[in-house]
Write a structure and sequence with these properties.
Elements (H helix, E strand, L loop, with lengths): L7 E7 L2 E7 L4 H18 L7 H7 L6 E2 L2 H14 L11 H7 L11 H8 L7 E4 L4 E4 L12 H15 L5 E4 L3 E5 L3 E6 L8 E7 L3 E6 L4 E4 L2 E4 L14 E8 L2 H24 L5 E6 L3 E4 L6 E4 L5 E2 L1
Parallel strand pairs: 15-17
Antiparallel strand pairs: 1-2, 2-6, 3-5, 4-5, 6-7, 7-10, 8-9, 9-16, 10-13, 11-12, 13-14, 14-15
Helix pairs in contact: 1-6, 6-7
The protein binds flavin-adenine dinucleotide and magnesium ion.
The site of flavin-adenine dinucleotide has 31 residues, from helix 1, helix 6 and helix 7.
């Protein structure tokens, strides 16, 4: 990237998130195509409206299988597999709990413990029955709900990157609100400072042709009686995941991997997460802890510059 190159930025609000596209030439029609593609995928995958392919599966819970399009089926298949990994805190059948807590939405509330217990019984990913021939998904218990919130943006970011490549774009950045994907070199991506000014950064991540996904507990949360409740739920307890981490950032080739591993590693905590990452040479991570430590995996695929002196590298 040449410093004299001009960057053209285009923005939209989709999936309840600010979306940003950066290009190196002024191309309104390409930007409109990108936003149109995101909207199309949102329409298939959303659970925040009464109708989508995923909602048609949810509406038929306990009743009958629903055939869906190939991308939706494949994404559900991957989400199911990750949910069933031993000890996984990723659970795409978390929907009934997400809907009950409403974290990040109007009417957020701390549900009674007894209700959470009852809803946990509806979050068994084994009860999602897939049929490859029919490309159908059946939620075997009434009241079950799929929620792809922890994986769909990653998938969509990969689709956009492929689309831009097909359009011969060699230098671009798409930010879907926490999921950043880059084409070309020389990109600097800010790592936000938790619970601070919206523009404050802990540091800057430099990458080329990589996805950078961050999952944190400081973007979507509410406070009640002095306690903070954030949106990544622990499928073992029904409450927000509670450990020493503030955020997990994953640097990888594919944003789908990034989205999956942010949630998965978040659930493992620092020591478990680092041990797990040691077996995944193609996945790199930046962990930020409540004790204001920044922990970096081997930096083969990125470099990191610490900017905030309240935080220190471990
Ligand atoms: P991640 O950490 O990647 O995932 C957290 C999200 O995954 C939670 O918000 C929840 O939905 C789900 N989740 C919680 N716990 C778990 C768990 N243990 N395992 C698996 N999943 C879990 N937001 C709006 O405000 N309005 C909208 O209309 C809206 N529409 C959307 C449509 C689509 C297609 C998508 C993908 C997202 C939409 N969102 C919307 C945002 C959505 O509600 C989530 O906040 C967002 O996907 C979280 O992404 P993240 O990367 O910040 O979090
Ligand atoms: Mg995720």
């Amino acid at each position: 990237m040449q410093t004299e190159d001009r960057i053209y930025a285009y923005s939209a609000v989709l999936m309840g998130s600010p979306i940003l596209l950066k290009l190196f030439s002024d191309n309104q029609s390409l930007a409109a195509q990108v936003f149109g593609l995101i909207k199309q995928l949102e329409d298939l995958l959303t659970v925040n409206r009464p109708h989508s392919e995923v909602m048609s599966i949810n509406h038929a819970a306990g009743s009958h299988p629903v055939s869906v399009s190939e991308p939706v089926f494949n994404l559900i298949k991957r989400a199911r597999a990750v949910s069933l990994l031993p000890g996984s805190c990723f659970n795409f059948t978390i929907g009934p709990l997400v809907k009950r807590w409403k974290i990040g939405f109007h009417g957020d509330t701390v549900p009674p413990a007894s209700e959470l217990q009852a809803l946990l019984a509806l979050t068994d990913a084994h009860q999602v029955i897939l049929n490859e021939q029919e490309r159908s998904v059946w939620l075997a218990m009434a009241g079950m709900e799929i929620d792809l919130g922890a994986i769909a943006k990653g998938y969509i970011a990969d689709v956009i990157k492929n689309f831009l490549q097909q359009q011969q774009v060699t230098q671009a950045l798409i930010n879907l609100g926490g999921n950043v994907h880059t084409l070309g070199s020389g990109w600097s991506i800010g790592l936000k400072k938790p619970f601070s000014d919206p523009d404050a950064l802990i540091g800057v991540i430099e990458v080329a042709n990589k996805s950078v996904v961050t999952s944190g507990i400081y973007e979507r949360y509410f406070e009640r009686e002095g306690r903070r409740y954030h949106h990544i739920l622990d499928p073992r307890t029904g409450y927000p995941l509670d450990n020493e981490l503030l955020s997990v950032t994953i640097i990888s080739d594919d944003s789908l991997d990034g989205d999956i591993y942010t949630t998965l590693i978040y659930g493992m905590g620092v020591e478990g997460g680092l041990a797990y990452l040691a077996g995944l040479p193609h996945i790199e991570a930046i962990l930020v802890t409540q004790a204001k430590e920044v922990i970096l995996s081997s930096q083969r695929q990125f470099s990191f510059r610490l900017l905030d002196d309240e935080y220190h590298l471990r």
